[in-house]
Design goal:
By secondary structure, the protein is α/β, with parallel strands linked by helices. It folds into 2 domains: 23-271, TIM Barrel; 273-383, Lyase, Ornithine Decarboxylase, Chain A, domain 1 (Beta Barrel), CATH 2.40.37.10. It contains 11 helices and 16 strands. It has helices at residues 2-7, 22-37, 53-61, 71-79, 96-104, 115-127, 166-175, 196-214, 243-253, 268-271, 304-308, and strands spanning 17-21, 42-46, 65-68, 87-89, 109-112, 132-137, 179-185, 221-223, 261-266, 275-286, 291-295, 314-316, 325-331, 340-348, 355-358, 379-383. The strands form 2 sheets. Strands 1, 10, 11, 12, 13, 14, 15 and 16 form an 8-stranded mixed sheet that branches. The protein has an 8-stranded parallel β-barrel with strand order 2-3-4-5-6-7-8-9, surrounded by 4 helices. Helix 2 (22-37) runs parallel beside helix 9 and helix 5 (96-104) packs across helix 6 (115-127). Bound molecules: ligand LLP. The site of ligand LLP has 21 residues, from strand 9, helix 10 and helix 11.
């Protein structure tokens, strides 16, 4: 297994830890850039997926922009080499301090999510004697067909400005002299694997754009957010997502106006597969129908299975002497029944001390780890080749 070779230096390290394959990261970024650059599309990396400095430096070096959701992410993006003028700032609850950070740094755009937020950004920009670039985050009411917790583009969700508010927003903008309307922004959800969803988004954006053009507004840029999913079930079959297919959908179905730029905010698709959480079996305990493999990583290091019942493939990476296979629930040490990485999976027989790789954990893994139970901060190791 390729992973095993890359991991070989780290087999005796204290677990749990994240292992990042920087070579795979680089190949993923190159594949994305080669697919997007032909169309002249601009990609901002969504820092929320993984804001580890090593990873960010690799991504900024490839020339991507950044998509931030907090003042600290803006600061981190700048520190790790992203250009200020390529930073988009999203989020339903930007604080005054965070807005100031964005304005001070002359970022690319504030993706504004409500009428009141527009007023607040205007007021802060006025006090600073500046104009803030704005993209209206629009709720297009398109179903992303993904987990309900990461669906964001339906009217019932808290995100964005709904179509019945457009008229009022434009009236309001007339008087907000310290804002400059630059773009229209959309993000309908994450881990989207049904590509027809993106086609539906394009068609909806075309309708919305028409409304704005009829009201004499042609935005400089359209930002369609992120959301491209990855293969969690069989990562080795598709370590690099199909970026060609993804960008072609937007090229074929989104009607851009002359000189209008198209921007994306990809997170997961760029970093998920390059990270694995490595954990060691502490105990094997016999259960009623399956055995429990109790490992030293828990929901404190990777919360996705507990929070979204998400699937992460688990591979045994210690060498197996015999070929007996058994059924296990792979569980963490935390006192919560949701602290379970996988139920009833078949693995080569496990014993105390065996190493497991919890796969596809490079996105929303390390960043969502916590100190619950006073657990130590999870360590990270990297391989270049
Ligand atoms: N842009 C905006 C405005 C977003 O809210 C997000 C993610 C992205 C871009 C990047 O989306 P991506 O390309 O990574 O799908 N913790 C969850 C995922 C939450 C995603 C939130 N928004 C998980 O572990 O699945």
């Amino acid at each position: 297994m390729e992973l095993l070779t890359k991991m070989s230096h780290y087999m005796d390290r204290e677990t749990p830890f994240y292992h990042y394959d920087l070579d795979l990261l680089s190949r993923t970024l190159d594949a994305m850039l080669s697919a997007s650059s032909g169309y002249g599309f601009h990609v901002h990396y969504a820092l929320k997926a993984n804001s580890n400095r090593e990873i960010l430096e690799r991504i900024s070096a490839k020339g991507l922009g950044a998509d931030c959701v907090s003042g600290n992410e803006i600061t981190r993006a700048i520190e790790t080499g992203f250009k200020k003028e390529d930073i988009a700032f999203a989020g339903v609850g930007k604080t005054d301090v965070e807005i100031k950070t964005g304005i001070e740094n002359d970022i690319f755009s504030f993706n504004a999510e409500s009428m009141q937020e527009l007023e607040v950004i205007n007021e802060i920009a006025r006090a600073m004697g500046k104009k803030a670039p704005i993209a209206l985050r629009i709720n297009p009411n398109v179903n992303a067909k993904t987990h309900q917790y990461i669906t964001t583009g339906l009217e019932e969700n808290k995100f964005g400005i709904n179509s019945w508010e457009f008229e009022t927003v434009l009236e309001k903008l007339e008087n907000l002299k310290n804002l400059e309307l630059k773009g229209l922004h959309f993000h309908i959800g994450s881990q989207i694997t049904d590509m027809s969803v993106f086609k539906g988004l394009c068609i909806r954006i075309n309708e919305i754009q028409k409304w704005f053009v009829e009201h004499r507004i042609i935005a400089e840029h359209i930002n369609v957010g992120g959301g491209l999913g990855v293969n969690y079930d069989h990562p080795d079959e598709k370590l690099i997502p199909d970026f060609d297919e993804f960008f072609k959908i937007f090229h074929d179905h989104l009607e851009l106006y002359p000189n209008q730029e198209l921007h994306f905010e990809l997170g997961r698709a760029l970093v998920a597969q390059c990270g694995n959480l490595i954990t060691r079996v502490l105990y094997i305990k016999n259960g009623v129908n399956v055995d429990f493999a109790i490992v030293d990583a828990g929901m404190t290091e990777l919360i996705r299975p507990a929070l979204y019942e998400s699937i992460h493939r688990i591979d045994k990476i210690s060498v197996t002497e015999n070929s007996v296979e058994k059924k296990y629930d792979v569980v963490g040490p935390i006192c919560e029944s949701s602290d379970c990485f996988a139920k009833s999976i078949i693995l080569p027989e496990l014993k105390r001390g065996d190493l497991l790789a919890i796969r596809s954990a490079g996105a929303y893994g390390e960043v969502m780890s916590s100190g619950y139970n006073l657990r130590s901060k999870v360590k990270t190791y990297y391989s270049e080749r």
